[in-house]
Structures are given as C-alpha cells and as structure tokens.
C-alpha cells in the first residue's frame, strides 16, 4: 500500500540504491497516568512510516515537537524497538542484528544530538570523548595511534587539536562543543549520520558554520545524512529531499525545493508561513493558528483536519494516504494545494 | 494619605509630565568574578532608556553578549559572584539600585516583571497552574485566596487558556506553559515586561502564537516590552526598536526597520549576513564557513569587535568607540562613523 506508492513516487531516484529502507514502521509507547492510577494510555509516536534513504543524499525530516521525528531516529539507530514494520540497512533487518553484525552497524550509523551542552560528559576532556568510540568500535588501542586519529578527526571538524584536546566541555563554546560531538560521531568512520537538530541550540552566527561543516564532510566522506530539524531554512540549504512529519505520520515528501516553493500539504504551508523572516514591520502579519493540543485529536479521518482551513467532509471521515500529487512529491491530503487539475486524483 | 506620600505622588506625576523616561540605565557595568584573579565584564557601560509607555525594544546578541545580565540588572537581580560595579538604574526617577528590600519587592512584578529563560520548566510539579498564579497574587496583591484564584482563571483566559486552571504543569504543552508564565508575569499589571528568550524551546507555530499574544498585551495594556533573543527575525513586527549587543556592550540601537535593512555597525552587518532564511541558497554554505571556528575573542583595548571586523583601522585598536547618535534616532558605537 503506502510503501508501494512511495516507491512509485520516488521513481526518479530509482537508479540509486537505498542505504536504508523503512517500511510501515509503527512505534507506540504506553503511558501510565500517575503512580497509583491503573489507567494507561497509548501514545502512537510513529504510525506507519515508509521512507527510503539513498546513498550520499541528505534527507531532512521536519516536524514540530511531538511529531515523532526523534523516535524515528532512535529506531534507525536501533535504540528503540518498533512494534511492527521493518528497517533495513543495506538489506539487513536492523532489529535482527546481533553480536559482530550489530557492532558493525553501530560503527556505520552514528548520531549527533541536539544539545551540545548536555551531550558531552562534563568530566571527560575532548580527547577522551572522541577516543572512546574509536577504541570501542574500531578496536584501536595503541595510545599513539589513538592520539593521531583523534587529532585527525578534530582537524577535520575545524578544531585545533593542540588547543582543544585536553579541554573540558565547559571550556568550549556551544559551536565548538557541537564540533566535538560531530568529531565523536565521525571517529568510527560511519556511512550514515543522523543529525538530530544539530544547530537548534546554537547562536545564529554559529549555525551556518556547523551546517557548512556537515555539507563539507558529506562531500568529502561521501556520507549519507538524515537531518532532523524543525527549521525549514536549514532543510532548504542542506537537503536534497525533505519529509514533513505530523503526529507520527509523513504527510509530505519530495525534493526540498519543490516542497518549499509549492507545498501540496496545508500543514507544510502552515509551517512555512510561521517560519520567521526578516521583514519590514508593516509587512508582518501574525495569524493565530491553534496548536496541536488546542485543536484536539481526531478519532478518524485526517489527523490534521482540526487545524486545516481547507478541510472538507471527506477529511473528517477518511484518513488520506501518502500518494503522488505531482511528478516527484507525495502528500497525504484529500485537498492538496498547488496541483494541476489534470494530475490530481 | 499622608502629605509625604502625596508629595511623592506629585513628584512622580511631574516626572511623567516632564517627559522623563520611565526607565533609564546610565553607564551600567556588571562584573562576574569566577576567582580572585579572573573577572568578566558581562555588561560594559550600558546606556538605555524606555522613554514612554508602550515603547518596545528587542535586544539581540550571541550567547555571552550580556543580554540576560542587562535584563537582570534592570530588576536589581544580579547575584554573587556578579556585581553591578558602576552606573545607575532609575525607574520613574527612583534609584533602583538603592531601593530597600520592601521597596524592591513592590518594584519587581508590580512595576517591572520578567519572563525568565526556560521559565516554562520552573513550575512546581505538585501545584496546579491556577494555584501558582493565585499564590503570586496573594503574596504581592491585596486579594484573599478565593479572589486570587478567580483572578488567576481570568488571567489564564486572557492568554487563551480556558478551563484548565486545575491542571498540573505536566498536563500543559510547552506553549501553554509558556503562556501561563506570561500570564503570571502580567498578574500584577506591570508597566514594563522583560521577556528573556521566551520562545527558544518552542516550534515555529507555537512561537508565532506567543509572539501574537505578547503583541496583543503590549497594545491592550500599553505595556513596554524588552524582548531578549538571539533570533533577530522573530523581532520583526513585534518591537519598534532594537539594540544589538556584543561582548557586554550595546554597539547599535535604533528603529528596527532601519537597523535591519540598513545596518551601521559591522557586527550587525555580520550578524544579518549569517542569518539563515527560507530565501538562503546552497551557496551560503561555504568552505570558509566550515572551517571558521567561532571567531576571535573580543579585544581588551580599543574596540572589542576589532579582532573580527573587516573594516578595522588603527584607531579601532587603541580607542574605544562610544555609542552616540550618528543620525536621527540611529545610535552606533563605531569609529567608521566618526
């Protein structure tokens, strides 16, 4: 179903081999309501996601907090076990990996976390932080070789090894810390890098530097990058393709420029409009749009319907499937925007 | 009312009539000392004023530029190891730094209140949101418990939260908690609200909601707003004026449209050019950017920005530029314009 359609829509990429392919992924969490309360509720964090990631591409996954992007990332890293569905890395089922295979997978797939202030051990100096993954995943033990490798990777991320090697995290700026995190992730020579909001916590003036660095590394090392972000501007300059997530589903996926210039899904249009831009005061219009919580959840139909200004009766009734709405993009919407009448359903 | 009080009130009125600023900071410096030898100047001779009610100011700068310190010094909230080493903060002609405990208590919240960074996570988990706000009202206002509770519900309604006063903070989303924080800050109808990065952990749609809410409060209550942030773009359409800070100093100040579309200070120029926007293209990602670490630290003598400035000349290395009016309404601290 969804998976097949997705493949059809991505036909323009068919010449390339998917490095990672996700099919119909479902993840739920059980939430207990209070210590003594027996009532439990189920949170559907990821609901039926199918996605392919091709070798040496950058794919952005964009969505607001609670949309399930981090859960998706954790599943890809084999840190969370999905309820159902499959994740294949180079045709091997990730959830079935064991022993040496799992070790190889962990070396191949690395993550850079959002918060550079919290993701480094405050008592470990830069050398220790970066050498651990090399020691454990690449089995390098000799002190000299370790130092050499750590220095090399630090240089690669734009840091001066002699200056930072023995420093503790609190002696570094936010941008420098994030570079150390990137060095840590690169140390075992991964093929796939998951970057979970890598610049969100950084100053505007440092963001461009870190993003430029990621792009340079991608080209030099032929990396594949999954960029998780809620900022469409960084998705725009970084990624070939973008997937927009909403409440655990992918609502739109396609080439980034297409999605940002002519979005099909009203949710994409909504976050585009809400993205801050430099404008003269007189040109700024602020429209009050209800948040997810205010709009309320739906039992059936399209999950975005309560916030959608284009919703019709079919939207409240039938959940839309992720289908091709134009040559290269797919969207899950009954009333898609920017489509030629001829090609619409 | 005693004669003395009457006199005081008259004097206050006089200040307003004389068109004196509501809030005025002159030459305020704040120093943090981490050890006996190491001292950091977090705010360096800041001059700033809020001339009238309804005046809105955005303060931008990188982390460590002294934005939060500026907010805290207005409230006389700098705590050890920090110290206000020089300058004066005047509110309606009163010396804030000389206020006694009781007077300060009334000044904070009732006259000037602040939404702190990540305040949305500072609600006590064992109290309902309504009780939180009511507590502020009981302690600082003249209401009894049930009146305060009623008022708290009204305040929450004003920020768009209906019938949820009995909920605990964890039942609120981030955006709702942030709105509740704003409701609390406005509980005692202050004249000035300082908001320190109130939207930094929120996503764009919720951020828009908070900004729209603040804008509405400014209009309805004739509130003066000092909005501290490192994201310049969110200030557009929210504030009328902007101050740019670098290494503890205000380097440029003026009407927002003028500063953003015709920046004077080289630092403002750099800040604006490094901004990512939906219009940015891939070319903005460059090799130069990738290898440039963060930039040289501020200079100790002369202009602090000289170490990073592309227009630097001899005078910048020796003489500190002072913030002064370059043309009408535009203030800049740079030798280029002098």
Please sum up the structure shown:
The complex is a heterodimer of chains A (345) and B (338). Chain A contains twelve helices and twelve strands. With 345 residues, chain A is α/β, with parallel strands linked by helices.
- Uncertain segments of chain A are 1-12
Quickly count the domains of chain A: 1
- Structural class of chain B comes to alpha/beta
CATH topology of chain A: Rossmann fold
Instruction: State the CATH superfamily name of chain A.
Output: P-loop containing nucleotide triphosphate hydrolases
Instruction: List SSEs of chain B in N-to-C order.
Output: HEEEHEEHEHHHEHEEEHHHHEE
Helix content of chain A: 25-40%
Q: Tell me the span between the first and last alpha carbons of chain A.
A: 16 Å
CATH architecture descriptor of chain A: 3-Layer(aba) Sandwich
Q: What percentage of the residues of chain B does DSSP assign to strands (E)?
A: 15-25%
List low-confidence stretches of chain B.
14-18
Percent in strands of chain A: 15-25%
Radius of gyration of chain B: 21 Å
Biggest sheet: strand arrangement of chain B: 6-7-8-3-9-10-12-11
Gap between N and C termini of chain B, in Å?
A: 53 Å
Description:
The complex is a heterodimer of chains A (about 350) and B (about 350). Chain A has a single domain, classed as Rossmann fold. Chain A is globular and about 70 Å long. In chain A, helix 4 (about 125-140) packs across helix 5, helix 4 packs parallel to helix 7 and helix 5 (about 145-155) packs across helix 7 (about 175-185). The two termini of chain A are about 15 Å apart. The longest helix of chain A is centred in the middle third of the chain and has 18 residues, at about 205-220. Chain A has helices at about 1-10, 70-75, 100-110, 125-140, 145-155, 160-165, 175-185, 205-220, 230-240, 255-260, 265-275, 290-295; strands at about 20-30, 40-55, 60, 85-90, 90-95, 110, 190-195, 225-230, 240-245, 250-255, 325, 330. Helices cover about 35% and strands about 20% of the residues of chain A. Chain A is α/β, with parallel strands linked by helices. Chain A is built from twelve helices and twelve strands. Chain A has an eight-stranded mixed β-sheet, with helices on both faces. Chain B is an alpha/beta fold. Chain B has a domain at about 260-275 and about 285-340. Chain B has eleven helices and twelve strands. Chain B has helices at about 5-15, 65-75, 100-110, 130-140, 145-160, 175-185, 205-220, 255-260, 265-275, 285-290, 315-320, and strands at about 25-35, 40-50, 55-60, 80-90, 95, 110-115, 190-195, 225-230, 240-245, 250-255, 325, 330. In chain B, strands 6-7-8-3-9-10-12-11 form an eight-stranded mixed β-sheet, sandwiched between helices. Chain B has a four-stranded antiparallel β-sheet with strand order 2-1-4-5, with helices on one face. The radius of gyration of chain B is 21 Å and the shape is globular. The relative contact order of chain B is 0.12. Residues about 15-20 of chain B have low confidence and may be disordered. The chains are: A alpha/beta (about 350), B alpha/beta (about 350).
């Amino acid at each position: 179903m969804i998976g097949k359609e997705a493949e059809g829509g991505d036909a323009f990429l068919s010449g390339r081999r998917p490095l990672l392919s996700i099919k119909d992924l479902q993840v739920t969490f059980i939430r207990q309501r209070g210590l003594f309360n027996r009532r439990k509720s189920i949170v559907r964090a990821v609901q039926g996601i199918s996605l392919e990631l091709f070798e040496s591409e950058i794919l952005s996954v964009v969505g607001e907090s609670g949309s399930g992007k981090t859960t998706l990332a954790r599943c890809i890293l084999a840190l969370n076990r999905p309820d159902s569905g499959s994740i294949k890395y180079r045709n091997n089922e990730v959830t079935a990996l064991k022993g040496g295979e799992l070790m190889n997978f962990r070396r191949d797939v690395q993550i850079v976390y959002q918060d550079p202030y919290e993701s480094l051990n405050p008592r470990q100096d830069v050398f220790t932080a970066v050498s651990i993954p090399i020691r454990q995943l690449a089995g390098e033990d000799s002190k000299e070789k370790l130092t050499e490798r750590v220095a090399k990777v630090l240089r690669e991320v734009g840091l001066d090894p002699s200056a930072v090697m023995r420093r503790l995290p609190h002696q570094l700026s936010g941008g420098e810390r994030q570079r150390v995190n990137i060095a840590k992730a690169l140390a075992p020579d991964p093929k796939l890098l998951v970057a979970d909001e890598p610049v969100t916590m950084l100053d505007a003036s440092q963001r461009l530097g870190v993003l430029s660095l990621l792009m340079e590394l991608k080209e030099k090392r032929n990396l594949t990058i999954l960029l998780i972000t809620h900022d469409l501007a960084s998705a725009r300059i970084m990624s070939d393709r973008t997937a927009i997530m909403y409440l655990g589903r992918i609502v739109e996926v396609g080439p980034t420029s297409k999605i940002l210039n002519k979005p099909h899904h009203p949710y994409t249009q909504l976050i585009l409009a809400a993205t801050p831009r430099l404008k003269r005061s007189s040109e700024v219009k602020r429209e009050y749009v209800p948040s997810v919580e205010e709009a309320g959840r739906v039992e059936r139909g399209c999950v975005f319907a309560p916030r959608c200004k284009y919703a019709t009766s079919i939207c409240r009734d039938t959940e839309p499937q992720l289908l091709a709405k134009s040559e290269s993009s797919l969207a899950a919407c009954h009333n898609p925007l920017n489509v030629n009448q001829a090609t619409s359903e | 009312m005693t004669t003395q009080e009457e006199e005081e009130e008259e004097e206050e009125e006089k200040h307003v009539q004389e068109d004196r600023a509501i809030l005025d900071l002159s030459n305020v410096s704040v120093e943090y000392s981490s050890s006996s030898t190491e001292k950091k100047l977090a705010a360096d001779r800041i001059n700033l004023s809020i001339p009238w009610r309804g005046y809105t100011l955005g303060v931008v700068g990188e982390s460590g530029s002294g934005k939060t310190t500026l907010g805290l010094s207005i409230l006389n909230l700098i705590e050890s190891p920090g110290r206000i080493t020089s300058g004066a903060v005047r509110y309606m002609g009163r010396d804030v730094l000389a206020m006694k405990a009781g007077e300060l208590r009334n000044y904070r919240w009732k006259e000037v209140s602040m939404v702190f960074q990540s305040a949305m996570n500072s609600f006590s988990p064992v109290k309902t949101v309504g009780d939180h706000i009511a507590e502020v009202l009981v302690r600082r206002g003249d209401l009894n418990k049930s009146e305060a509770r009623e008022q708290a519900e009204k305040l929450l309604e004003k920020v768009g939260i209906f019938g949820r006063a009995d909920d605990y903070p964890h039942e609120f989303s981030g955006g709702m908690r942030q709105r509740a924080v704003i409701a609390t800050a406005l509980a005692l109808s202050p004249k000035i609200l300082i908001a320190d990065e109130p939207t930094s952990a929120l996503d764009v749609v919720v951020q828009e909601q908070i900004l729209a809410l603040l804008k509405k409060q400014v209009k309805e209550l004739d509130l003066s707003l000092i909005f501290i942030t490192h994201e310049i773009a969110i200030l557009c359409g929210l504030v009328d004026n902007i101050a740019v800070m670098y290494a503890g100093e205000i380097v440029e100040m003026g009407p927002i449209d003028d500063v953003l579309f015709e920046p004077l200070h080289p630092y403002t120029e750099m800040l604006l050019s490094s901004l990512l926007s939906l219009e940015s293209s891939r070319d903005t990602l460059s090799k130069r950017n990738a290898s440039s670490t963060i930039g040289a630290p501020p200079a100790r003598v002369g202009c602090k920005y000289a170490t990073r400035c592309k227009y630097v000349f001899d005078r910048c290395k020796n003489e500190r530029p002072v913030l002064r009016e370059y043309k009408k309404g535009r203030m800049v601290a740079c030798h280029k314009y002098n």
